[in-house]
Design goal:
The complex is a heterodimer of chains A (320) and B (318). Chain A is an alpha/beta fold and 320 residues long. Helices cover 50% and strands 15% of the residues of chain A. Chain A contains 14 helices and 8 strands. With 318 residues, chain B is of the alpha/beta class. Classes of the chains: A alpha/beta (320), B alpha/beta (318).
Chain lengths: 320, 318
């Protein structure tokens, strides 16, 4: 049963009616509702198409944060084999908001790292809703460094509202941990590929997404600040998040024009959560293509290209 | 002290000598409330002479106090695209830029300069909190890259004074992209084997701390500076508890192993000279005023003459 977003309410009504009709038909065998239900289905399909044809930035934020959207764990399970989680920062703790470990992608050994938000109340709390503490970033630094030494490509899956704003996180050097993670991203001499699968929240996302290739799912977002946060600072009113989402240019489409992402991965109609399998296949295809693009490049080339990519960002505006 | 001095004189003065007093001749310390005479305050680099509170200082004033004889040359910063997102909140971004430029007289929130401190050549960059909260946008990113490139070109260390509320929201993702960009700048210095020293000043927060401001070889802070990733208000709202006294202040960070040193602004120059000269394997600074180059030449010429004279007289004696 899909959870509907606020703007999907009309859709919920129609799909609800169709469901009701079918339930009635099951209870009462004489009733023939097939035609009516099919008509409703068609109407719903059309509406879904219309709704998703041109999502506003704020609606995209809602889709990107949809609780049923496939998360890092789902992608790892579907796209990788022999996933062997590696834990801990060898310093303080293991941060469950960050998953990482060795795995095979199309049989090729890689290091996979990502933010995991959790899928039910228990796992969400356990994983701190995907908001990493310094330990999470330090674990990532450790894994990236190791991948660099063993020549394994690194694949990061970004899905976080941002780094966790907590007392302990600050005391243990949240900012330093993020800075070191970005630094490590720029340092390793292996292909680094990043896919923003949901939310790319500020510094917490940059720490993983400073990559040779950055791909974004069609309805994912990547921003310096959440629209709500931006609205409360610049508009002095958190309710102005729609305007803020618009102004921030946080959609995959706008960011592609700015050169922040290299490709947009198409999502099934109605968002990745409506057909996770299709979404996963699209992501798998994108990752293998990006790996191929980087295949055969030397460590120096990879490092140089990565730096150049980021130094060049900002040289073209939206108009281009 | 009697009633005449206490009461009558001020009153008479107020009648007879009501001179025009410029408004900004005196500045009140935000911390202890003492009224400070502007000249005395600026001579003390905007540090309260009464309680030692560090007030805001512009990059230009800081450089004037930092460099030998107040002499420095500005390093040019490549101009970025202006308002790439056509950002508009309650005001248009270009209007905010204009207002900030008018207020500060500077192009943007960072000034880069080359010069000498204690006859030690350095490149320095300082962030201007009075310019849109010192926020890190593309110009600031370009400034840091330009500073690093200049330092590498000249083979000098880079000293960076940070002060920022964080990223510049009006540049959206492009401000966020300054985190990796400035990290590349820091890597250029490291690869060239040049020291990168960060002086954190009040306040340094957000994406700035999570990039170039935390990657120094030596991390120094001015006393009581707020240094954090997430601000105290955000944290209090998240965890719903009161934060301890001095949380996220320089001394607190020093206690938690996040900084090397906390040094008052008035001692910073000496501190930097000492550290940089050691890292650059230079002999210790000569303490005291050196004669100016012309005088020194004249002196040595004179010294040569006297020794020649001495030799001549010695010869004569033989």
């Amino acid at each position: 049963m899909t959870q509907y977003l606020e703007f999907e309410k009309p859709l919920a009504e129609i799909e609800g009616k169709a469901e009701e009709l079918r339930a009635l038909a099951r209870a009462n065998e004489e009733m023939d509702v097939a035609d009516e239900a099919a008509a409703l289905d068609a109407k719903a399909a059309q509406l879904l198409k219309d709704l998703y044809k041109d999502l506003t930035p704020w609606r995209k934020c809602q889709v990107a944060r949809h609780p049923e959207r496939p998360h890092c764990k789902d992608y790892i399970e579907a796209l990788f084999t022999e996933f062997t989680p590696l834990a801990g920062d060898r310093n303080f703790a293991d941060d469950l908001a960050v998953m990482g470990g060795l795995a095979r992608f199309n049989d090729q050994p890689v290091m996979v790292i990502g933010h995991e938000k959790g899928s039910d109340t228990k796992s969400r709390i356990e994983r701190n809703f995907g908001m990493a503490r310094p330990e999470g970033y330090r674990k990532a630094v450790r894994l990236m460094e190791m991948a660099g030494r063993f020549g394994l490509p690194v694949i990061t899956l970004v899905d976080t509202a941002g780094a966790y704003p907590g007392k302990g996180a600050e005391e243990r050097g949240q900012s330093e941990a993020i800075a070191r993670s970005t630094e490590m991203c720029l340092k390793i001499g292996v292909p680094l590929i990043s896919v923003i699968i949901g939310e790319g929240g500020s510094g917490g996302a940059v720490a993983f997404a400073t990559a040779n290739r950055v791909a974004m799912l069609e309805h994912s977002i990547y921003s310096v600040i959440s629209p709500e946060g931006c609205a409360s600072i610049l508009w002095k009113d958190a309710e102005k998040m729609r305007e803020a989402a618009e102004a921030l240019r946080l959609t995959a489409q706008d960011l592609n024009k700015l050169g922040v992402n290299d490709r947009i991965i198409p999502e099934p109609l109605g968002g990745a959560h409506r057909d996770p399998k299709a979404a996963m296949n699209a992501v798998a295809k994108a990752i293998s293509e990006m790996l191929e693009e980087l295949d055969g490049k030397s460590a120096e080339e990879l490092i140089r290209d990565r730096r150049k990519k980021f130094l060049d960002i900002g040289s073209k505006g939206l108009a281009a | 002290m009697n009633w005449i001095t206490n009461y009558v004189r001020p009153k008479i003065n107020s009648i007879f000598s009501r001179r025009e007093v410029p408004e900004n001749l005196w500045q009140k310390c935000d911390e202890c409330g003492t009224m400070l005479f502007h000249r005395e305050l600026s001579d003390n680099q905007n540090v309260c002479t009464s309680c030692g509170h560090h007030m805001h200082i512009t990059p230009r004033d800081r450089f004037t106090a930092l460099f030998d004889g107040g002499v420095f040359t500005e390093v040019a910063v490549p101009e970025p695209l202006s308002d790439p997102l056509k950002f508009k909140d309650q005001k248009k971004y270009p209007d905010r830029i204009k207002a900030a430029q008018k207020k500060t007289g500077e192009k943007d929130a960072m000034l880069v300069a080359a010069g000498e401190i204690g006859r030690t050549p350095i490149v320095a960059a300082a962030q201007d909190f009075s310019y849109m909260g010192g926020s890190m946008g593309m110009y600031v990113g370009n400034a840091i890259i330009a500073a690093a490139e200049e330092a590498v070109k000249l083979g000098r260390p880079l000293v960076l004074f940070s002060a920022a509320g964080g990223a510049r929201m009006q540049e959206g993702i492009l401000s966020l992209m300054q985190m990796p960009r400035t990290t590349v700048a820091v890597q250029m210095l490291k690869e060239a084997g040049l020291p990168y020293i960060v002086v954190l000043t009040h306040p340094t927060t957000g994406g700035v701390t999570a990039s170039y401001a935390m990657l120094g070889d030596v991390q120094i802070s001015e006393p009581n500076a707020l240094i954090c990733f997430a601000g105290p208000r955000v944290i209090e709202q998240t965890i719903r508890e009161k934060l301890p006294e001095g949380f996220q202040r320089a001394e607190y960070l020093l206690d938690h192993g996040m900084l090397d040193r906390v040094i008052p602004r008035t001692e910073m120059r000496e501190e930097l000279i000492t550290i940089i000269r050691m890292l650059m394997k230079l002999p210790p600074q000569v303490v005291g005023d050196l004669p100016s180059p012309q005088d020194a030449e004249a002196d040595s010429a004179e010294a040569a003459n006297t020794s020649a004279d001495a030799a001549a007289s010695e010869e004569a004696a033989q």
